[in-house]
Amino acid sequence: MEMDTGLERKFARFDGDLSVTDGTRIEGYASYFGACDQGGDVVQKGAYAVSLAALARDRRQVKMLWQHDPAQPIGIWDEVREDARGLYVKGRLLDSVEKGREAAALIAAGAIDGLSIGYRTKRAGKTDRGQRLLTELELWEVSLVTFPMLPSARVAAKGESLTDDALRELAAAFDGARQELARG
């Protein structure tokens, strides 16, 4: 039985803004401001600022995990920051860790291409469309995952990107799955 820690997860699929070089170096966006995800949430610009400042003050880092499993760190995020577009991350998969090697191989093969943030909501409101507007988040980790929720942020080999049609198909698939789960 899982203990409720209040930790939420926000999945994101990387587009061409994320690159993987040398099989281990990753950089791109884990979250985009103003983008509505499959759960109906929108992250507001500045939502991570307080959390990132606290992490820096306390000399702690956002963790890089495999599938949100705290027992499976797979790398190091060397840089995590907000900019005008969203939450930018830059780091290294550790090839000295078995899951790090596996993650690098799965990314290279195209089998894994998603990121997901693990966070606790500190403050939220509503958009004029009724979506949850996340205004302050306590960021804990950014994971490589199989099924992301925000189609616009995904892991890609350098120079690779998803087409608009592929993104629409993926969004439709997630919407259908979410509706089925709601009925269940």
Per CATH, what is the topology? Serine Protease, Human Cytomegalovirus Protease, Chain A
The CATH class label is Alpha Beta
Q: In total, how many domains does the architecture comprise?
A: 1
Outline the low-pLDDT stretches.
Answer: 156-163
Count of alpha/pi helices: 3
Q: What is the chain-wise order of helices and strands?
A: EEEEHEEEHEEH
Shape: globular
Label the structural class. Answer: alpha+beta
- The appropriate CATH architecture is Alpha-Beta Barrel
- Please describe the biggest sheet, giving its number of strands, its sense, and whether it closes into a barrel: 9 strands, mixed
Q: Can you count the beta strands? A: 9
Whole-angstrom Rg: 16 Å
Q: In whole angstroms, how far apart are the ends?
A: 20 Å
Classify the beta-strand content into a percent band.
Answer: 35-45%
Name the quaternary structure. Answer: single chain
Query: Which percent range fits the helix content?
Result: 10-25%
